[in-house]
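Retry 2 of 3 after timeout on previous attempt. Resubmitting structure tokens to design endpoint.
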């Protein structure tokens, strides 16, 4: 069994072994052009004819047309063009035609896009009207009844690709018949092939497109059924192939492969029965429910294909779910188009009236009728593993208290970031510049880890600390005389490198010193303070406003002791005298994922005389020098036996991961959110070659660029990430 568990069957499928053999045979042995009259051509023609006959029987085409084409998108264009050309002719001949182009609100985009395109091109100017659906994805038949008399063309898919919702075609047909509608009827049957019984000529469906790659045939082969008597206009003309209905030399490898799939459908014994597929769905649904508490399915199982499960999990976005499933090598898809930062809601789920969090966080798990029990068992085991990984990262509730973390965490969203300081020994934390968008995430992390929040700090008046403080409630440890966000009235008195005296908050074995730039803006210096904090004679206190350094303990925080400076909106203003060249400067705005910088890195950019004056100071090092692809990776690993692999995926992805790194080496987990925490050790320690990786190489390159900017030359990226690293993949122990 392949290590990948492919559960994205509604997107595409692997190829049936018999289909692969048929395609190879068509290319190697029967490679002729079916239009040629010699024997080589005739052998290819025989495959074409046999496949068409097979398709006619399987789909119940009767005396209708059945042509091969490039796929469903082409079939939809051809059907729409055919119907609209006929409507235009009828109109030109003086007949009254319907004014509406009706389509289900959850149709694949190929349908409304084709309708709009050809309507405009043919100058028909009919009105496109979406038919709403209910919570189960079923068409609103009363709305349809109300407007069917004005319909020129009606498009209603047989089954939805995101949810598997099966349309009630019998009811729609009855409605068309009762209303004596003259509307043409297009039914997108892409997701129905092999999963629902089809007897097309016994219905009044005029057009039915199919796509081979959704059922174990290759991409680029499709079929279009056209009812006998329904209007037809070819989309592609030329050599007259397919009886002049679709010109262009036939895709014989695709046709032969599709023929093998149709043979499997017709002869039986290859694909699993409907009852067996229902049982598979039950097993997958149960393991999903068990692994992911609170999970909700976004469709009614009773009215959906057994091969599609669409679900959302409270508190988890589709990005996190996709990432954890992908790490476990369970290939699913998000129900919506999502960018790295934000998931867009799914228009299908929106049309069903699903809550926005469910729509934007939806995951689709779909499989084909070839699925076997071993794959299902392995899928269930990996789903459980994903649940465990998310639990251990506090992303879903857990009964067991996870191990507390230590150090610095950076959480980002939309180019801004919040910083968390964690102390495992005392289970306490400090939060700097909390972003409202991260409130839920920070709150659940703090609650799950059972941290005591010593303080919520802001670097500028824009910092919204109140939202998080409200959410955290009892988790904030307030000093009796301190402010509402935890800053104590009697902290420490810290003497900084320039002799200035500021207030400090002890945290673990370190201290956090507050440097006020004015009444509203502050930076925070975090590091190792010494005991003798007596200011040099004559040194001016740098505190401003009503800040009065308390005198509980006097500490000295020399520049070399400052590990991190949380610079927030104040930027680096006045900090050069207080910090070391390698102190990590941590911003509250990070639009380019730079993570952090240092005085040394800033100076090297500014000092660079080789740069033309208008060069972007954030310019990245030459990418070609730091990217290792499949060809150079093996050689690199041979030359650098001491190289350390660093996996920057989030902890839940690492925990769910099924593979070792390239060359079978074990990677160490340093998630991007913890990069700043680790940087100091790398920068201060003996340099070793570091090889960064993630799933695609997009996240790890950011870490490499950050290290290089900070002056660490021995950092490289695995180009294309784990997805492309040409290492033999073995199951991790
Ligand atoms: N219709 C439905 C329901 C689909 O799922 C798809 C593919 O996702 C299409 C049409 C388009 O098929 P193709 O991309 O093969 O042309």
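Retry 2 succeeded. Sequence:
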């Amino acid at each position: 069994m392949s290590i990948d568990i492919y559960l994205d069957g509604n997107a595409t499928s692997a190829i049936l072994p018999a289909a692969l053999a048929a395609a190879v045979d068509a290319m190697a042995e029967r490679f002729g052009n079916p239009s040629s009259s010699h024997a080589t051509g005739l052998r290819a023609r025989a495959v074409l004819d046999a496949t068409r006959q097979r398709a006619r029987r399987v789909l119940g085409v009767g005396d209708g047309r059945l042509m091969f084409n490039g796929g469903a998108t082409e079939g939809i264009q051809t059907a729409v063009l055919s119907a609209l050309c006929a409507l235009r002719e009828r109109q030109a001949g003086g007949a009254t035609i319907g004014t509406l182009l009706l389509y289900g609100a959850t149709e694949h985009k190929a349908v409304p896009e084709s309708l709009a395109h050809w309507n405009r091109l043919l100058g028909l100017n009919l009105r496109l009207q979406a038919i709403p659906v209910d919570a189960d994805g079923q068409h609103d038949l009363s709305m349809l009844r109300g407007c069917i008399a004005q319909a020129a063309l009606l498009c209603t898919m047989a089954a939805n690709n995101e949810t598997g919702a099966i349309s009630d075609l019998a009811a729609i047909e009855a409605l068309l018949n009762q209303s004596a509608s003259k509307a043409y009827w297009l039914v997108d049957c892409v997701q129905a092939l092999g999963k629902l019984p089809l007897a097309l000529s016994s219905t009044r469906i005029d057009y039915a497109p199919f796509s081979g790659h959704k059922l174990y045939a290759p991409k680029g082969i499709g079929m279009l059924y056209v009812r006998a008597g329904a209007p037809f206009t070819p989309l592609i003309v030329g050599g007259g192939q397919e009886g002049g209905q679709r010109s262009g030399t036939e895709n014989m490898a695709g046709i032969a492969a599709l023929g093998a799939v149709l043979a499997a459908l017709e002869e039986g014994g290859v694909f699993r029965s409907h009852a067996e597929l229902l049982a598979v769905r039950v097993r997958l649904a149960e393991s999903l429910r068990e692994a992911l508490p609170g999970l909700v399915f976004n469709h009614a199982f009773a009215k959906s294909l057994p091969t599609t499960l669409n679900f959302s999990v409270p508190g988890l976005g589709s990005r996190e779910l996709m990432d954890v499933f992908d790490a476990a090598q369970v290939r699913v898809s998000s129900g919506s188009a999502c960018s790295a930062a934000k998931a867009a809601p799914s228009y299908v789920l929106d049309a069903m009236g699903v809550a926005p969090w469910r729509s934007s966080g939806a995951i689709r798990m779909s499989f084909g009728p070839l699925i076997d029990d071993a794959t299902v068992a392995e899928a269930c085991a990996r789903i459980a593993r994903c649940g465990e990984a998310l639990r251990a990262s506090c992303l879903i509730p857990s009964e067991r208290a996870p191990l507390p973390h230590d150090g610095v965490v950076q959480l980002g969203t939309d180019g801004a970031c919040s910083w968390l300081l964690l102390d495992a020994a005392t289970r306490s934390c400090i939060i700097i510049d909390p972003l409202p968008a991260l409130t839920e995430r920070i709150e659940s992390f703090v609650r799950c880890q059972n941290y005591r929040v010593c303080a919520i700090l802001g670097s500028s008046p824009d910092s919204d600390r109140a939202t998080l403080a409200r959410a955290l409630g009892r988790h904030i440890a307030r000093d009796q005389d301190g402010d509402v966000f935890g800053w104590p009235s009697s902290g420490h008195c810290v003497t900084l490198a320039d002799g200035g005296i500021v207030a400090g908050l002890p945290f673990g074995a370190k201290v956090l010193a507050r440097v006020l730039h004015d009444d509203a803006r502050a930076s925070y210096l975090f590091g190792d303070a010494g005991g003798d904090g007596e200011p040099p004679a004559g040194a001016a206190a740098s505190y401003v406003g009503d800040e009065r350094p308390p005198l509980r303990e006097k500490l000295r925080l020399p520049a070399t002791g400052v590990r991190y400076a949380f610079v927030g909106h104040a930027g680096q203003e006045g900090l050069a005298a207080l910090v070391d060249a390698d102190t990590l400067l941590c911003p509250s705005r990070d639009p380019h994922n730079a993570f952090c910088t240092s005085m040394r890195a800033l100076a090297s950019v500014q000092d660079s005389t080789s740069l033309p004056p208008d060069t972007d100071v954030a310019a990245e090092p030459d990418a070609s020098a730091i990217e290792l692809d499949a060809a150079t990776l093996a050689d690199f690993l041979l030359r650098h036996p001491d190289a350390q692999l660093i996996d920057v995926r989030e902890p839940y992805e690492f925990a769910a991961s099924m593979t070792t790194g390239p060359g079978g080496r074990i990677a160490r987990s340093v998630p991007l959110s913890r990069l700043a925490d680790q940087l100091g050790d790398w920068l201060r320690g003996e340099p070793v070659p570091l090889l960064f990786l993630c799933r695609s190489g997009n996240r790890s390159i950011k870490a490499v660029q950050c290290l290089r900017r900070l002056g660490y030359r021995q950092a490289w990226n695995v180009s294309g990430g784990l997805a492309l690293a040409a290492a033999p993949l073995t199951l991790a122990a």
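Attempt log closed. Confidence is low (pLDDT under 50) at residues 535-551, 609-619, 727-733.
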